[in-house]
Amino acid sequence: MFFKNAKKINSADLILQFFKYILATCAVLYIFIYLYLCFFRIQYPYELRWLEGGMVDHVKRVISGQKLYISPSLEFIPVYTPFYFYLSAAISSVVGIGFTPLRVISFIASLGCFFVIFLIVKRETGNKLSGLISVGLFAATFPLSGGTFDMIRPDALFLLFTLTALYLIRFETSLRASILSGIIFSLSFLTKQTALIIILPTILYCILSNRKYTIFFISSIVAVMGLSTLAMNYIYDGWYTYYVFNLPSQHPIRMEMFIDFWTKDLILPLFIACIMSAFYLSIQLFDSNKKNILFYSLISIGLIGSSLLLRLHAGGAENVLFPAYAGVSLLFGLSHYRFIELPQILSAVRQKSWEAFFYIICILQFTALIYNPFHHIPKQKDLDAGKKLVNIIGQIKGEIYLPAWGYLSALAGKKTYAHKSAINAILLGENGEVKKKFLDEVNQALREKKFSAIILDSEPWFPEIMEIIERYYVRQELFFDGNTAYWTFNGKASMPGFLYVPKEDAVY
């Protein structure tokens, strides 16, 4: 009888280990897929996602010594806070300007996010597997966030600073750590102003948890953010606060995205992880250490809430989901550990059966996120189409305006101008005087036939802009056949489509 029971227990152990290794393999596989993707994507000389070229334009401007924050003009309109551009400019001035060095920054920052997520969960639970599946789930959200991990955007660097500051707040209580976390949070804000939404609940946690050095944490944030804002505003003649604070607050809210955020962005792809996260926060209410529930509730509000608020704003694309997915991934690993601990009152065999069942549930979450990585990798036909397009642009005499792909003008040896995304932000704003001044400049430039050609995509643009364009220019037939190549790989599909020429030069 004894040996019969022992055999059953050994079988249960084997089954448990099998599912445990499958779960770990799922997590590692998604991390490996991301690294595999980056190997091919980082070197791609064209855009992976709309706006990457505009980010490069910012870096060129910093390197050339021109002001980053200026009155909106046809020549240039900035986006985001400046640290990512300053860091990129410092590196690009050494290794050369282009897409690759900026993608490398985001790639390294994303790996840093993986590491800090692992550290937080490992430190909280003492369980390496819990940390690994947190990282694996975050890596699996690569397509859900529009491939933001390795994009030429400030998102990955901003999130790395944010997670690092949160790690220090959670696990370090020294004066030095409090000041350092405040400085790092300030760098997060200077990378992307979204950090401010996460900073506020973090400060509330510090106050409510009676942290000894809270005043130093808050003071370091106020000092760095306050002094940098005053300095930037002075250097840029007041335009810094306009772009960082005023303009974003003027954008319309899309309330229809509220339901889509919770259903399509979070619950539908991460149903199991969301249920487990809610379970973890609920069970922490009964924990004797109330700091746990306080910390993870408030940072979840910060991380997920920041994504929600930006998703509601006009122009909030998939990249704004980056913090929310990091927050859910953290809670996923933490809840994994608590689920394993839960059935302590069961017999050894039943406890192992419960663990195996729970591992299967986690595996199902990973399988629900399966995607084809090859859809995110540029192919030779994309490279060939890009070269052909640059060649076409280079053969057009005079200046060309490509509001969504100014970098193509640069590759063809021509001047770049304000990016369409930044123009959209100005036209969505409520400052009528700023908009009127910008539209008057556009009207004058097109009336004077400043551009030999204007190249747009097929997506409808603001009527105010299209009215001016169609007043002086006329659309010609599709000039570039990109039916099978050169489309962007993440986010909204985009590519040059229509050629506009001055009316007197039109060929009918």
Q: What would you say about this model in short?
A:
This protein is an all-alpha fold. The protein is 65% helix and 3% strand. It has helices at 2-41, 52-63, 83-95, 99-125, 128-140, 155-171, 175-191, 195-208, 214-235, 239-250, 256-267, 271-283, 290-312, 322-341, 348-367, 380-395, 406-411, 420-428, 432-447, 463-472, and strands at residues 400-401, 453-456, 473-475, 498-502.
Account of the protein in words:
65% of the residues lie in helices and 3% in strands. With 508 residues, it is an all-alpha fold. The chain folds into 2 domains: 305 residues, no CATH class; 127 residues, no CATH class. A 4-stranded mixed sheet has the order 1-2-4-3. The radius of gyration is 25 Å and the shape is globular. The termini are far apart. The N terminus is likely disordered.
Cα shape: globular
Beta-strand level of the residues, as a percent range? under 5%
Overall pLDDT metric: 90
Number of helices: 20
Q: How many separate structural domains?
A: 2
Stretches where pLDDT falls below 50 for ≥5 residues? 1-8
Structural class given helices, strands, pairing? mainly alpha
The largest sheet has its strands arranged as 1-2-4-3
- Give the SSE string: HHHHHHHHHHHHHHHHEHHHEHEE
Radius of gyration: 25 Å
Measure the end-to-end span. Answer: 94 Å
Strand count, sense and closure of the main sheet? Answer: 4 strands, mixed
Q: What is the total tally of β strands?
A: 4
Helix content: 55-70%
